What we know:
By secondary structure, this protein is mainly alpha-helical. It has one domain. The protein is built from five helices and no strands.
Amino acid sequence: xxxxxxxxxxxxxxxxxxxxxxxxxxxxxxxxxxxxxxxxxxxxxxxxxxxxxxxxxxxxxxxxxxxxxxxxxxxxxxxxxxxxxxxxxxxxxxxxxxxxxxxxxxxxxxxxxxxxxxxxxxxxxxxxxxxxxxxxxxxx
Length: 140
């Protein structure tokens, strides 16, 4: 189970339809929470690897909103990559911004507090998520 986030936090950046398409290997209609949790855990590990250079990790919970945003954004990218689909440009850009922000933290250039955001942290609107259709989703 993720430490900094909850499975439901992924729905702040992806619609349930897209999460199902990215995690259901059978027909793309049911969310596989095991894959979501795995992506969140791996994303938390990445966050810890950067933040741990200047802060004691794991961070005390509940963590700041900026950390939750970083974790779910990285997990979002991992779910797209898991599906072997092309990552939409806006998603890739969000991941790059989060990674740059984490690098700044690691270099002691950014102090953690609730006011810190990732370049005005972009949260995808559920209706604007690109649909994911791949042969793997539908078993072709």
